[in-house]
Design goal:
Two copies of one chain form a homodimer.
Chain A: E1 7-12, H1 17-29, E2 34-38, H2 46-52, H3 56-61, E3 63-65, H4 68-71, E4 77-81, E5 92-93, H5 95-103, E6 111-115, H6 124-128, E7 132-134, H7 147-162, H8 178-194, H9 203-216, H10 221-246
Parallel strand pairs in A: 1-2, 1-6, 2-3, 4-6, 4-7, 5-7
Helix pairs in contact in A: 1-2, 1-7, 5-7, 8-9, 8-10
């Protein structure tokens, strides 16, 4: 499938119906069609229809979710768009880099481009659900893009990226998707709790750090298996240990 | 002068004040500031101000002309934006090609990006005043971009084109060097042997895989410490376990 057919746009907590309409138009301009809305404002507001212009079909087909996790459930890859001022800014990609990364992913996989609220973006928990983070390069003086403008620029990069056949000849190492990674992280958390590495009161802090490390590592399936084997081996030792401790 | 300081945006016959406001915002997002309006609608309409958000300074500084020729009088170069369906479509450039052309122009020269009316674009006479023609690549199904979206994409291409060679602008996250990494790998190998994860006859095979994973992860010192803490914690569990096994 054409790469554009594998891109989903997810808007989280959008406050302005006009913006939703303009996002529909921008997506259709760039050949995208799958729009998902997490807890949006009123989608049947006349502004949404007015600004969608000839992209009302996208507006009508948009699916509504009550959480980001639900909206991402069938997306193997996801990218959170953020302003560049985050703590971990060097892990933040440009839209072009995301196009390149996703070009190397499995040909059936789906990528969600996730955009937060107009005024406050995405929460820390929402960010943590996304595989990658990206920001659009802007002037330092005024970095606040309108939501639909941000969506347009991302879609435009994918549209341009889909134009020529990639001649680069990079042998695509196939990256593991979230269907593999999330069970890895679940297992990791259980094991790390068991051996007392995580604080049971606040396991998320260290787990976010682990997610960052292994996101950057761009694991393939074989490596995910190797790491899961390692965790099982630690479990095995810890189980014996626990048995002894209990004795 | 920075290439962005040599770019002028000219809007001809704009009909919607909100679009003029959004154009101001988009220009400022991408570091441009010189806006010229040829026979525009009411610029003091509240929509213009509202959509300009923090780019009202551009709106207030915009100069108004009564003909395109006048607006272009001090611009050595100019590009008319059109839909792709023109008569001479093979002479029509992409925004990226315009950036490239203008990069080769005299360093004091000025380029005008000329955008026509929302409904009917530029007249034949207006097109003839412009040096080049350009169009933004869009989906065949729906090629009509909102005016401010078209301006944004052009400005974005110039902004990207003006970025320094290392565009990431990433403040160097200080990566851990081998003085930190080698002790990490040594500790990892000892621990993994202890819990039976490595084959004592051939530990290198799996350790090479671990090195690849953690090389790609580009660990910093804090993360190396976190991982060494994890290994110590596994050691602690495994020591107890060994003790039991030995008993």
């Amino acid at each position: 499938m054409d790469i554009k057919g594998r891109i989903t746009v997810v808007l989280v907590g959008t406050q302005s119906p006009g913006n939703i309409g303009m996002v529909c138009r921008a997506m259709k301009n760039m050949g995208l069609s799958d729009l998902r809305l997490v807890n949006p404002c009123r989608v049947d507001h006349p502004d949404a229809t007015m600004f969608a212009v000839s992209a009302r079909d996208l507006l009508e087909a948009a699916r509504i979710y009550s959480s980001l996790g639900e909206a991402l459930s069938d997306c193997e890859f996801s990218v959170a768009t953020t302003r560049r001022h985050g703590k971990y800014r060097n892990e933040i990609c440009t839209p072009g880099e995301i196009v390149e990364k996703f070009s190397g992913c499995a040909p059936q996989s789906r990528l969600a481009l996730v955009f937060g609220r107009e005024d406050s973006g995405l929460t820390t928990d929402e960010l943590a659900l996304c595989r990658w983070q990206a920001t659009i390069p802007t002037a330092d003086e005024y970095g606040s893009l309108n939501l639909s403008q941000a969506v347009l620029l991302f879609c435009y990069e994918f549209f341009k990226g889909a134009l020529p056949v990639d001649p680069a000849g990079k042998t695509a190492r196939e990256l593991a998707g979230s269907a593999s990674l999330e069970p890895l992280y679940d297992q990791m958390e259980r094991t790390f709790l068991r051996i007392g590495y995580l604080n049971p009161q606040n396991p998320d802090h260290m787990m976010r750090s682990m997610r960052r490390i292994f996101s950057r590592a761009e694991l393939d399936e074989r490596e995910v298996s190797a790491l899961r084997g390692l965790l099982s081996q630690i479990d095995w030792a810890a189980a014996e240990f626990k048995g002894k401790k209990g004795a």
